[in-house]
Amino acid sequence: MDLTLFQPTDSHTTCPFKGEAAYWTYRGAAGDEVEPRPDVVWAYPQPIEKVAEIKDHLSFYDAVAKIEISE
């Protein structure tokens, strides 16, 4: 995933089972005419110990993002 297309936001939420989530907004590449998708991606940079394996894994709101995987 090209993280240069996303910008970190000030949004944070707290889950009692996972910890504090950080969010990113999709901005697109420089010069692209795209509508920003606020807080469409989130991750747990410092999850609680019981779920440490989710650290830095990214999640997407599929209702506002079309996800395509290519090799």
UniProtKB/TrEMBL annotation:
Pfam families: NTP_transf_9. InterPro entries: DUF427 (IPR007361), DUF427_sf (IPR038694). Transmembrane segments: none annotated. Residues 2-62 form the DUF427 domain. This is DUF427 domain-containing protein.
